[in-house]
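Note to self: user wants both folds in one dump. Writing first protein now.
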Amino acid sequence: MPVTARDCSGRVANDVLLAMDRRHVWHPHAALPAPGRSLMVESASGVRLRTPDGRELVDGMAASWSAVHGYRHPVLDAAVTEQLGRMSHVTFGGITHGPAVDLCRLLIEVTPEELQHVFLSESGPVAVEVAVTMCQQYWRDRGKPSKSRIMTWRGGHHGDTFGAAVLGDPGDGPRPPWHGPLPPPLFADRPPDTFEHDYVAQLVRLVETHADELAAIVVEPVVQGRGGVRFHDPRYLHVLRELCLACDVLLVFDEVYTGFGRTGELFAADHAAIQPDVMCLGGALTGGYLPMAATLCSGRVAHGLTLRHDATFMGNPLAAAVAHASVSLLLERGWRSEVKAIASWLRAGLTPARSLPGVREVRILGAIGVIELDHDVDVPAATSAAVLAGAWLRPMRNLVYTVPPFVSTRADVATITAGMRAAALAG
């Protein structure tokens, strides 16, 4: 075992940690050894990340869009500390506890009214896997095992676990084209930005033709997240809802990215005021503190269904307690005005980017801002440029984008958008 260098306080020196990180620690979408050095972060509070050399960076990514309240929020810290004094974990098989029940009750209250049943898991992709299991088992239990296929539209991303990755568009995203034991998905074209009747006709044709084999349609409503941060007209959700009702297919909304206010409505489904049969939540559910996700379904789906899905940390009390505190804090704090203000500040800061060389489009919805380039981003160069401007961003493919914490100020957002413009120029 190699000897590690330590400073006078007994801690491993940062340069040693970074060298070990580069050789041994596998980061998302990265090779080994890593081509460059990761950013070392020593602490975080509010909307700022602090590096060992004393720099402070405004986090434009909100810890992968989860830290909507920022870091070290006293209400969320207190929720974790209080629960830790009672119990950190207990199995959820045959046992229940207040934090989980309280969280499920709150989620039922704030989501579309037909969603009355909650299955807790540890991550957004697993919530999607649970949703697919629900839908396929629903039809098996009703004597229609041939209804096992899932329809979705291109440009989506539902996670990198095996079943969730199957639903990702193999030709338009950072995932490999997994197929495996699940029936291959039925793909519609990516939804256009605006409402187009020809696209509606395609949806109608696909669903009506394949209704006998379709268990469900699974989509990210209004915003396709990591597949390209693209927006589409909410009226397509109405089309899907009517098609599913007419053709006896279940409708699943993956709101891991869009849930809890990010798009300007509490849930993206609210833009269309419709009820899915199943909804997947994660991301901002715990305010970025602990892993937890939830799959909610209607009574129609849940009735008589024994869901054969289990996990060690299902219903974890610590995660449930902080999730309840996070959702409650969001509802109490006037999130809608915060998101509206961030949207206006993003417009002010990103409008000048429209004239930058290589910029194809600038788009903003709620607390989401995107600069789309006409070429793939040089990620190390773009990231370094953003850091020099005082912001932490994580560009991908041909996108420089931000999903800032809702507690960001005008000055914070100005720093983020300056970093985005610098990243677009450098990338």
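First done. Writing the second protein, which came from a different request thread.
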Amino acid sequence: MAVRLLDDNIELPAYAQPGDAGADLRTRVDVQIPPGERLLVPTGVAIALPAGYVGLIHPRSGLAARHGLSIVNTPGTIDAGYRGEIQVALLNTDLRHEIVLRRNDRIAQLVIQRVEQATFTIVEALPESVRGAGGFGSTGGAHPLDGADG
């Protein structure tokens, strides 16, 4: 994949282990994210995805578990035509502690996937299905907010 480094001292996206789905992205700058706040963080990387592919930005599970660091719009979407710097909208979900990240710290994972584009057609009725119009929670048990015990 074609990658443009926008900063000479930023590492390329890289897979930590053979077979990993996500390549680590790093922060180009030092950042401090106050409790409960969000911040758009530059990675110093731009990519050229081929047509028919998408880049999805996912949180790193270790940072989420240990520090409450997540991504506001997870997964973030990088369209094939985008050529600008990849930036990550990080969110500090911890309400007591600031998160401090240093330049070149791993902050997110980039997953590349094939995508299909649909042709949308207006119809009078949709074909029947087993699920029908059942939405949120329609296939599981009672939801805790519905007043059920657990």
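Dump finished. Worth passing along: The helical segments are 61-67.
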